Amino acid sequence: MDLSAVRFDEKGLVPVVVQDARTGEVLTLAYANREALEETLRTRRSTFFSRSRQALWRKGETSGHTQEVVEVLLDCDGDAVVYRVLPQGPACHTGERTCFHRALLEGEKDLGFVVGQVYATIKERLRTLPEGSYVARMHQAGLDRILKKIGEEAGEVILAAKNQNPEELRHEAADLLFHLLLTLAELGLTPEDLAKTLWERHRPRSPYDGSHGN
C-alpha cells in the first residue's frame, strides 16, 4: 500500500473521481486524505474525507448505497485519483444515479454506455423490486416467462428483418437486447462477461473467422 506517489495538497487532500466500472460513467467528485485512501485500499469500499465535517466518511454508511472498489488509479501528475467502482444504488444524495445529472451539453451515447446504464437499472430494479416496475414483474413471473419473452422478441426481430423494415427492426432488436440483459442479470452474468466472450471469439482463428463470415 505505497502512497508515496500521491501528491496531496496543502490541506492533505487529493481529489477523487468516482467512476462506474461497468459503464465508465462519472458518478462523483470527492476528496480523500491519506487515511481515507488507505481505508479504501484496505476495505475496497469508497471512503472519503468530508471537508465540511472534517471527518472520514464511507459511501453508503447511512443510505446503504455502497460502492465496491475494483480499481484505484493515480493520474500522471499524482495529484488526482480515480476509484472505479461497482455501485449498489445511486451515487447522488438526490437519488440520481450520478451527481453529474444536469447536462450543459447533451451528447450522443454509444452502445456500450447505454447497455451499461440499462443493465445497471435492471440490477437496481431486481434489488429493490419497486411496485409497478416491469423488471420486478417479470422477475416475479419467473425465468420461464422471461425466456418465453425472448423467444417472442426474437420472432419479432425476424419478421421485421424479413419485411425489410429498418425502423421496426431497430425497435424490436432493442426489445430483444433488453430481455437478454434481464436474463443475464437473473443468472448473475454481466455485459462484461458477454464482451469478454465476444472478444475471445473475435481474435484470429476464432469460430467467427470461418463459416461465420467475420
Can you offer a commentary on this structure?
The chain has two domains: 74 residues, Phosphoribosyl-AMP cyclohydrolase (Ubiquitin-like (UB roll)); 99 residues, Orthogonal Bundle (Helix Hairpins). Helix content is 42%, strand content 17%. It has six helices and six strands, in the order E-E-H-E-E-E-E-H-H-H-H-H. It has a four-stranded mixed β-sheet, covered by helices on one side. It starts with 13 loop residues before the first strand and ends in a 12-residue tail after the last helix.
Q: What's the structural blueprint in terms of helices and strands?
A:
Blueprint: E1 14-20, E2 26-32, H1 34-43, E3 47-50, E4 55-58, E5 67-74, E6 81-87, H2 111-128, H3 134-141, H4 143-162, H5 166-186, H6 191-202
Parallel strand pairs: 1-6
Antiparallel strand pairs: 1-2, 3-4, 5-6
Helix pairs in contact: 2-5, 4-5
